[in-house]
Amino acid sequence: MDKTAQNQDAQNKGKQLTIVEQFEDFSIRKSWYQEEWWYALVDVVAVFSGTSRARKYWYDLKKKIIEEEGYHELSEKIGQLKFAATDGKSYKTDAANFHIVSRVLQSIRSPQAEPFKQWLAGLATQEVEAIEDPEQALERLRQAYERMGRDPQWIKVRLEGIEIRKRLTDQWQIRGIVAGWEYAILTNRISEETFGIPTREHKEKKGLKRQDLREHYTVLEHALINLSEAATHEFTEQRNSYGFDQIQQDALDGGRVGGRARKDLEQQGLKVVSEQNFLPPSRRKKKELPAAE
Questions:
Q1: Dihedral (C-alpha) 100, 106, 111, 116: value to the nearest 10 degrees?
Q2: Chain CA centroid to CA 206, Å
Q3: What does DSSP assign to residue 50?
Q4: Residues 174, 189: Cα–Cα separation, whole Å
Q5: 223 three-state secondary structure
Q6: Number of C-alpha atoms within 13 angstroms, CB side, residue 69?
Q7: For residue range 46-94, what is the model confidence (pLDDT) as tens digits?
Q8: What own/partner pairs with CB < 8 Å and gap ≥ 24 does 82-90 have?
């Protein structure tokens, strides 16, 4: 395989990365596979199970669909993709495309099934539009943040961060980063050097579990991670780095750029790493109850 073909193969594999979408209080993981988005089925059924045993719920439901409803093709159309879990590791999980997820929803008796299906269909439509018109996708995201009541300055740095992040991961893809665990490690290297604490500790500090940490950064936290990722991009491009080891060094160096800025701000009396989050009041209240007791 020549270098061009290798790079193209790397780009295709690099698209198989975990993205997390939020439906109400639930996190839905999805991965780009075979030129479309595939969704973690255990996350889908967690919306309807009402228990912490979503895997058992999905196992029983799959068996029912295959054996009782006669949909024997289901097993053939479900893939085993690796998704990042809460412990930071990746595990093989049943996943399916939008068509199969919609078929699974038909077998779930829940008042939430139809709203969820509509949300998923809207999400799929938006993703196609985003590929065709990235600026339109960013504008839609801006409007969504405005409806959520986010501050204009916060929206500005968040959208800037999305563009910076995309430029960076595009570089990674064409320079040999192909596995989900590689993206996860590189991202964590940048974050930990920037903020001086592990990503897991940063989430705990904000009272987050499966939520996306970046959606709960303050303006200052966004500004610093944007600086670090922009610096990482420049290091990688100007050094012409290739492969995980070289790019990991770029990530460390880029994160240290933001880390030095953080230390300078802290030395001048500013608190940078914040407990602030954007969880609904009811979720924040639950987190604070044990301390109040």
A1: 20
A2: 17
A3: -
A4: 20
A5: helix
A6: 15
A7: 888 766 788 888 988 888 888 877 777 777 788 888 887 777 677 888 9
A8: 82/31, 82/180, 83/18, 83/29, 83/31, 83/40, 84/18, 84/29, 84/180, 84/184, 86/209, 86/210, 88/184, 88/200, 90/18, 90/180, 90/181, 90/184
